[in-house]
Amino acid sequence: MAPYLFGDHTVLRPLKWYTTLHTHKGRAATGMFLAEGRRVVEQIAATKPEAVDEVLFTEDAGPVKSAEFPLRQLTAAQIRRIASTKTPQGLIAVVRAPTDIESSKIPEKPGSRILLLEDIQDPGNVGTLVRTAAAMGYDGIVASDKCADPLTPKAVQACAGSLYTVWIRRTRQYLSMVHDLQKRGFELIATTAGGMSCRRWRPDGSLVLMLGNEGNGLSPSLLALADTRLAIPHAAERVESLNVAAAGAICMFISSAVSTK
Q: What is the pLDDT of residue 4?
């Protein structure tokens, strides 16, 4: 619950409450997460102002320019206790998590471009992929339950406020969801070594672009479901493979429905 007035006294959350939002358990119990830094806080406030539950700020940082949110001024030392970054900017928002993020139910209108993330461990990669998906006109993201939580502070920073521009599902039922999308007519595109060159790829119709774990790639179960296998040509004598966020960006750009004209 947000800070509220009780008689002549303001009842405030203890500082320890905010630190529980660094854990998945704490976020699941409260339905909240932390967004740190002015750029991220202001982007979320602009995109989804009703999701901002409270804004914490130091005197030096100053609050966001809005009277819509409960504001709480803290000392720099108090902000450091709450922040996950080593050098916090003095501005943190408590944000309501997107609805159904841990559901295994596909939205009634899922759109035509969906990103599948399987067991991607780095929250920075997950956040960057969410942001890229939003920029490239993708509609939704299905993530395995072993993926880094997109609501961790590092992932939220990498998302740069794009969390509310695509629907997200993070669930252990991701395989059945992908199979269901396939039955609805979505083409399943697996990114894997030895696949067809993405230079020859001409996507047509609804699709699910599937990206796998940084070290192991996609699981045999997903590869077996794939309608098309896709590879990105690169100088193999220089690097073994591309970073998953970079690979995803290339493939999403090619498949993007966003007009560049």
A: 43
Number of domains composing the chain: 2
Which residues neighbour 233 within 8 Å (Cβ) at sequence distance 6 or greater? 197, 198, 199
Q: Report d(CA 170, CA 116) in Å as an integer.
A: 10
Tokens of 137: 């006109």
- DSSP, residue by residue, 195-210: EEEGGG----S-EEEE
Nearest CA among 15, 255, 11 for reference residue 138: 255
Q: What DSSP line would sit under 90-133, residue for residue? A: SEEEEEEPPTTTT--PPPSS--SEEEEE-S---HHHHHHHHHHH
Contact (CB, 8 A) for 183 and 154: no
Among 62, 96, 130, the domain boundary falls at 96
CATH number, domain of 50, equals 3.30.1330.30
- Residue 124 burial class via C-beta count within 10 angstroms: exposed 0-12, middle 13-18, buried 19 and up: middle
User: What would the pLDDT profile of 160-177 be if each residue is shown by its tens digit?
Assistant: 778 899 999 999 999 999
Segments forming the whole domain that contains residue 184 = 113-255
pLDDT level of residue 66 (50, 70, 90 thresholds): low
Using CA atoms, how far apart are residues 59 and 33, in angstroms rounded to an integer? 23
Tokens (6 digits) for 25: 């358990």
CB neighbours of residue 182 within 10 Å: 15
Pairing of strands 113-117, 140-144: parallel
Which among 180, 186, 88, 91 has a CA at the least distance from the CA of 139? Answer: 186
36 strand-pairing partners: 92
> Cα 251 to the chain's mean position, in Å?
18
